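Notes on consecutive records. When two proteins share a document, each keeps its own sequence and its own token line. Never mix them. Below: protein one.
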Amino acid sequence: MEPLAASITQAASKQTYYTIRLLVDRGRVASAYRAYAYFRWVDDRLDAQAASQPRSLAFVERQQALVEVAYRGEQPPCLSPEERMLFDLVRSDDAPGSGLQAYIHHLMNVMVFDARRRGQTISQQALATYSGDLATSVTEALHYFIGHNDPTPVGTARYLAVTAAHITHMLRDTYEDVAAGYYNIAGEFLAAHGISPTQVHSDAYREWVKARVQLARDYFRQGSDYLCRVKSRRCRIAGFAYMARFESVLATIERDDYRLRPNYDECKRLMTCAKAAWAVLNGAPGFAF
């Protein structure tokens, strides 16, 4: 196991660290840590440079170019230790069109979009594409790293659980994102209701939140049905644990009558993830709570 990748992962997300350690296919553990840690580093660097958009864009465009270089089988000099993780990760991927390749390319699209959108409102279509890239990357990584030898179900619901999680994530982080100049609400909605993206307390914004919560709930239901059809039990456990973390946030937003909070207490995260795993181990169909 690569110490740097594992240490970055453990420091950033205990849930991800133990998911990889306990559930990922044994031959792919090191790559899974690299896959998470590299993009965690990219995201953290973008956050640290948020005050300077030119620097953020230069950094993320370098990373985007390095992905293309890596897939051509080249390795330039003067890479940082974190960038070397990317090249080691790509070298481990010997299947053209693999889930890992989809993960890398789609998540890099997410990073580029975030770097470019600071201080700007975005369209409904751009918001959907943003969530689509995120959902594709996470879902394909899940199937690549956990139970990769098992066939996976086909259908339109494949990416819906992670799409729902991303919708929830954007609601949860609204206050933090607005303060940093990132607006997770469609420009068309703002124009139609005559509000600015910073008016989080307004009735119109609350209407937006309610619609997004309802959409996320519907996507989680369909995504849950999809996960129940996944053959790999380890993959189901990881998927439901991932959902549980975000469904608990939705429940809090609903209890607050769709008024967002500056912070959401995730102290029950381990309990809800354990509940998800227990439900899967007992074969509970249509898991939801």
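Protein two starts on the next line and is unrelated to protein one.
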Amino acid sequence: MSKNLWYAVEFCNAIGTSPKLIKILDREIVLYRTADGRIQAIDNNCIHRGAALANGWLENDCIVCPYHGWQYRTDGTCSKIPSQAATATIPKSAKMTVYPVGEKYGWIWLFLSDGAAEEIPTLPNFPQLESGTIRSIQGEFHWNANYERVLENGLDFAHAPFVHAGAFGNPDRPEIEDLQIENYPDGASATVYLAAIPPKGLWKFLVRGERAPIKTRTGFFLPNLTFLEVYLPFGQLTIWTAHVPIDLHTTVSKWINFRSFFTGKWADGDAYKRTIKIFEQDQPIVESQRPQIIPTDVNAELYVAADVLQLQYRKLRQPSI
């Protein structure tokens, strides 16, 4: 799993002044905000006796351990040990690990380092998320699968006619033709025109007559982002997803769904159900894949023309550690 990169790990609106535990790459980390709204990230287990700081509270912007009341500043240094006199020296070793953290595009970003990074890069820029999309909703989905398997599934056009038949895959037209690839320093995308299917539900009121092929673009950015853009006759649907690697076999996908049609709140429920349905259709397939961990050797599995985006991901990703 990749280190020395910014991971999108949580939604900005999920973090307040109460400590919140997150898990990533087998680590337990606490997120919280100071009184002025600054986001902070610190290891969960107190350096003293290993109690969970996530069960503590904030006092003057210091996080307080619920076991013995030790307090830690935002830089991780201990500011108070209640059991000793106020004049006593606090050991220099009484310091917690803190992490570079920021927020952008609706997500909290965490920089995970293996110590080799000489400097911390700035948060990534995605102009696509700065275009002022009209309406958005968010949610999350849990998988019993490695995050790279989950991520690669989001780059796979060819499974749509089979796994998502009737939703956005046309089983009568499974061919994937004329993939247009665009490469970036830390990612790639592919554009294809997929055969349309008859609209259902609310969407049938927006479409009349025979439907032309639907322009669809999907891609990824290291280490854990995927996006899907669907250009419909009546507007654009975009889903950006941060696939958070909890551990080797558990992933939480935190997604944001943008749409330029049905922009009232009344349509949010339908948009949410459609998004979750896609994940639910994918889940049994992805969780059944073996080996569970993608091979580090890019030649260990077979590829055809429709797999070009997954192959590019495997070439760009850092070796699993």
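For the record: The mean pLDDT is 90.
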